[in-house]
Amino acid sequence: MKMQEPRWHGLGTLETPIVPAPGRKAPRPHARIRRLLTGGVAIVALALGSDIPSATEASPLTIHAEATRTGHLTDAKPASPAAVQPASRPAGVDAASKATRGQSIDAALDAAINGIIDANGQYQIGVALMDLSDVVPQQDLALQNAIHRYGVQDPFEAASTAKVLAAAAYYRHVEDGTASLDDLLGDYTSGYQIKEMIQNSDNDAWSSIMDAVGYPQLQDYAASIGVDYDPEANGLTPAELATILAKLYTGRLLNQEHTAQLLSYMQDTNFETLIPDAVPAGITVYHKYGLLDGELHDTAILARGTRAYALVVCTNSGDESDTAERTQIIHHLTQAVVDRLF
Question: Which one is the CATH code of 39-136+237-342: 1.20.120, 3.30.2320, 3.30.70, 3.40.710?
């Protein structure tokens, strides 16, 4: 069957209120999300050591190198949406001297994060910081115990950040032989739909993937990886978002090929003005953002050399009127983590 030309969505167009965190086009009808919070900000950072093996005997750095070798990772940078200028560093962020960079999470970083939270008391803020350098592979209890929690830890409406979970669930069907990336879902292959869903946050693509996976099946898949997720409510805590990124990057969710492919779709997205805009050159960023009414989220993996971190920032102020201000909060939190850990 001859496929239609790929769909294109303008880089500056943002999401519409649809489950789970819409893309630019309205999908086929699905049950709407019940809001879980009226406001909040959450951040999670996760550090990985290069010596942590994955479930498929491939380290995160091996996966990163494989993606680069096979050409899944691209250096091309598309035009970004109307950009909010990167925020200047808030007071106290530079307290961590260059001499101490690259250390693990400590009191100085705790103080920097808490300082940003305290300086933005008009928002509910929840922070979780995770360092996996000493986590024993395959021991989820150790992974959970490694999470440092600050502020609000209730579920946030995940918006489009939950699309990573849907993508992983479909890839699992591919790996167990019940689906193929060449299967047609509507007018496009499932492989193309996954790329559009992640890289361009397309809602039609998400709807096609969800039709194939199923709501109850996605809930069961989430439970199997230690995440309590109801697709109808679309609520995830900061720690749960960190868990998804951690297991993806360390190869605990998918095989090496699919891990590298999914990570590659989390680069050069159609909305690069959040976490990526505050990360200096030389650090690789894989991320999935979410925007829905008052929700403004970004979930990212930051990698350089022998270390990698996951940084998740979820914000909700009730409406979109202060998106620029919340973008600066995301920049401040990103800069605090990068300044201390890289």
Answer: 3.40.710
